[in-house]
Automatic annotation (TrEMBL):
Belongs to the UPF0053 family. This is Putative membrane protein. Its main location: membrane. Pfam families: CBS, CNNM, CorC_HlyC. It comes from Corynebacterium glyciniphilum AJ 3170. Residues 225-284, 290-347 form the CBS domain. Keywords: CBS domain, Cell membrane, Membrane, Repeat, Transmembrane, Transmembrane helix.
Amino acid sequence: MDILLSILGLVGFVLLTAGTGLFVAVEFSTTSLERSTIEDDIAARGDAASKMVKRAHSDLSFMLSGSQLGITVTTLATGYLAEPILARFFTPALELVGLGASASTSVALILSLIIATILSMVFGELVPKNLAIANPLQVARLLTRPVWIFNTVFHRFIQLMNNTANVIVRRFGIEPADELASARSPQELSALVRHSTGAEGFDQSKVRILDRSLKFGDASAEDFMTPRSTVDTLETTDTALDLIREAHESGHSRFPVVNGDLDETIGVVHVKDALTIPAADRASTPVRDLARRVPTVPTSLGGDAVLNLVRSAGSQLVLVVDEYGGTAGIVSIEDVVEEILGEVWDEHDDRTDSEVQRSGQFWDLSGLVRCDELEDACGYAAPDGPYETLGGLVMSTLGRIPSEGDRVMLPRSERDLVERVTDGNPVRWEATVVSMDSRRIDRVQLRPVPDTHVVDADGDRDE
């Protein structure tokens, strides 16, 4: 009779451990599932199992509370049942090796507790957890229904516990949720894309494009416009022949037509407009007669809205206006494409004017490179400040309009200062003004230098 009871006890131990694993697997599988995955499964199969998974995921708080109750009950029952059963097998073996009756009983209970805990943890928690995380949909489809039945039986008790927990959570100023939020912010999606590089994920080029696309909606017209100081324009008195010459010299096809400066823009012309005019009349046809109306947008307008306006504008070009009503620059379809894809070249572009060029430990950059692009371009993380571009950062650090050949140590970001303390990174970045375009910094050379060699603009060593 004792042998039969021992065998039944062992069977009960195995079943209770499996029960713990059942609740653990359902808990991890339901929390690992995305709503989109469940919807796709319903669309593909539409069977009872997929509908049950959706129902459980929609009432996640109740489902998890029931799983926690099941895990607690089965774990306690496993310990209560396993310890004396296993001790009954260990006691005779310990007595055979010379332990007394009382000592062997105590040691057997300790051994049974350790073994029961290990077996319950490995087979009741860790194994089902790993299976659920690796295959959440398959596990949820297979095991959700029995747990839902258990929850239905103990519905009132689970609801009481859940309501009690919700009251406590609300005391902390947090509103409980019955369903996991499946929506992701652009920042979260961008992080997911970056972490999907390699193995069976995306390659670097796809990651770069997806990351730029996700960030594009957060950018504004000011971020990717061509600033007014670099815009090639035509005067209203210029002719169609002047338009052809300017297109040949600059490599551009579209030009704003202005009455003095960009603040008085009357429209935009395309070089093809001049080519439609008979050659004999081009020198006498003013470009103001060819100009088309050009839309205007504020500097703060978001990237998606700017893209829609540029696409819908017949000129594929819009003027960007600052808060004071002045023209800050222009946005063309090429500016939008380059914001997403990176620098785009055609047969008329001069590659020596590339925004970023590297030669050994030196980086030659355009002064118009945005500060938020510097880390990807060369590794320098610029701190926040009253500037948008590398040229603005250099001017702000110098405290004046620079001259060609000026050198200055660029400031560190707060993150760099933290990393310097934790990693002992002694590197600083030195900027040298290579060329100026009137009062605008045209090209800047950056190079990393050891902190021991750092000398500030005023000649003092920076320790």
